[in-house]
Amino acid sequence: MSQLDESDRSVAEDAGWAEPPARKGFFTDTSVCIGCKACEVACKEWNGVPDDGFNLLGTSYDNTGELGASTWRHVAFIEQPATGVPPQGETAGDLPAAGPTQLGMPTVGAPPARPDFRWLMSSDVCKHCTEAACLDVCPTGSLFRTEFGTVVVQDDICNGCGYCVPACPFGVIDRRVGDAGVKNVGIAQKCTLCYDRLRADQMPACAQTCPTESIQFGDVEQLRERAANRLAQLQAQGVEGARLYGHDPDDGIGGAGAMFLLLDQPEVYGLPPAPVVTTRDLPDMWKKAGWAALTLAAAAIASFAGRS
Amino acid sequence: MSPSRGAGRALMGPSRGAGRALMGPSRGAGRALMGPSRGAGRAPTSQPRGRRRRGSGDGAPVVPDVTFSSYYGRPVVKASPWEADIPAYLLLGGVAAGSSLLAAGADLSDRPTLRRTARLSAFAAIALSFAALVHDLGRPSRFVNMLRVAKPTSPMSMGTWLLSAYGPLVGLAAAGELRPWLPRWAGRLLGPSARPAGLAASAIAPGVAAYTAVLLADTATPAWHESYRELPFVFVGSAAASAGGLAMISTPVAEAGPARRLALIGACLELAAEQRMSESAGLAAEAFETGPAGRLVTAGKALTAAGALTAVVAGRRRWSAAVAGLALFAGSACTRFGVFEAGQASARDPKYTVVPQRERADSANAQRVVASGNELADHRRAGDLAGDQ
After folding, report:
1. DSSP state of A272
2. Would B104 be classed as within a structural domain?
3. Which of the residues A189, A212, A278, B271 has an alpha carbon 20 to 30 A from that of A293?
């Protein structure tokens, strides 16, 4: 519940940091994502995240499924029939994902008439919210706001109460399950925006490895600008579905540290369309609970009022 | 894009869970080889069955189908990792709180039997609560880390501190009742503190009973958050009904009058608040009415009503009072587990998260007019990338 109208620096300042560096974050431009999953691999390798199961999910090329305790980057694959006419000329060149995709699948007989087709791919990650519900509800102080304005779990403090799990409006953080020997089992885990790398002036592993610069790392303020420019560029090219997500400091979470350029509605990617941090209603909740408590006290007194 | 991928998917198909069976894209194995089939269409659009309008007695009218997009029907928010420990704690914490109030009243109004049974009930309930809470932690050995901070933004932190103050007081009050079985020195030490401790516990008890509603509501779990206005009243009503019911079982009718009255007030409060909740929670109310959660909630209402009726009609007869008490306790338990399960179910079904938020986003966009560039995107059609040329 921070002051949001200030500059992004104030996110860390509100958390008690004196003269923090500029707020850091991601801008994930899904229009150039090629679904290579290098970000998933780099994240696991750098952060020593254990495997999250070897499953075939039957959901396009996505066999990861969702973000969780052992999945800090997740590449979503959505298969859609395209209805418009494919762009021509330089537009197609500028926009790798925009053209009709020739799948090159082996067929028997004459090729069937197939509708145009597009794949949406998007690498999802913790949003590092300005108003972070996970951080608000954490009863141990394990989750904390770093000097970079990001939200990080301290492994050695979390006691696995699990409160942050249902609190997150994006379903990002989870309690790690597994055998007793598994690293950090039983405690809440999520993306740290590579806190260790940031402190060494390095780029987070996923952004470093992304071959198409779909994942861009930088100062949140600059990323917002870059995202707006990219959106304008795509719209000038006639890309209809393009929109930004998490860029607006006036939204229900006070703006995200990790914003996205999407090509369809957020829910198509598994993102909530208009999330609001639950703690915005907390003062009202306490008030209601206070009245309820008084009601119970009054009920008890009334029960003893007359002798039977 | 090798055909073997498709084969793999075809093999996986049938084994998939019912939850995912709802949605399109997981369907056709053939699609894997032939590109997108019409049916799978514009990726994952879930179309849950039409739902019946609530509260209509004739049962016929059907609200139009809710259509929304999701990512292969996967949940947007995560359900809490909590298990039966937590609803059990909700129940027992309420029982403890209500019992503390009864014990304090009995102490002040000179009802020694009710005082004894209520103090011991409160102690047993809070001890079991504590065990349930610690057991539910991912790292029980780190329970004490709860005491590192006191955070008003975290209902769990506030609850921990409430219980830390409340638990020992309940223990002291109960020790007063156990005096005959304690060593003489311990009895002399603890005996005089029983009354002040019991009274102090009763001052904290309403908070103990009410805060658990905030604990659940302060999450992104749709059914819990959307019912935050009424949930505290459901929970304190349930606390009064269950504690009153328990005392009706454990205490002879001669002294159980206040327990009976507390249980009745609690039952009425619980039922009224639940009714209001189902009217104001919007789509989330459906989670309290359907599936296993719906059956628990319905059973809770029926048991609570039956117990209250029995208490009114035959509450002064020992056995029927005990039966009424049992029904009230069981009703309260069903309500707690039902509310818990409704939340879990509402988190697992993306409908409860996406539909209200989509409405909010659409109306916000409608107000914002052309200012932002995102308007173009609000048509629910595919193929946007290809553009109009």
Report:
1. -
2. yes
3. A278
Work out the pLDDT band at A240, boundaries 50, 70, 90: confident
Strand partners, B46: B68
In chain A, the residue whose alpha carbon lies closest to the alpha carbon of B225 is A278
CATH code for the domain in which residue B141 is found: 1.20.1630.10
Asked if the structure places residue B62 within a domain, the reply is no
Q: Do B384 and A263 touch (CB under 8 A)?
A: yes
| CB atoms B102 and A185 under 8 Å | no
Asked if B373's CB is within 8 angstroms of A232's CB, the reply is yes
Domain-located, residue B108:
yes
pLDDT of residue A104: 61
Contact B98 A112 (CB under 8 A): no
Average pLDDT over residues B370-380: 47
A114-141, pLDDT tens digit by residue? 556 788 999 999 999 999 999 999 999 9
Which whole number is the average pLDDT over A198-211?
97
Residue B19 pLDDT more than 90?
A: no
Chain A residue whose CA is closest to B73: A270
Contact flag B137-A231 (C-beta cutoff 8 Å) = no
Task: Kindly report, residue by residue over B149-187, the tens digit of the pLDDT.
Answer: 999 999 999 999 999 999 999 999 999 998 888 888 888
Q: What is the pLDDT of residue A5?
A: 43
pLDDT at B315: 87
pTM score of the predicted model: 0.84
> Going from the N-terminus, what domains does chain A have, and what CATH number goes with each?
15-92+115-302 (3.30.70.20)
Evaluate whether residue B233 is within a structural domain. yes
Say if residue A248 is exposed, middle or buried (CB neighbours under 10 Å; 0-12, 13-18, 19+). Answer: middle
- The pLDDT of residue B59: 47
> Domain limits at B196?
85-350
A30-49 mean pLDDT: 97
Instruction: Count how many pairs of residues, chain A against chain B, have C-beta atoms within 8 Å.
Output: 384
In chain B, the number of structural domains is 1
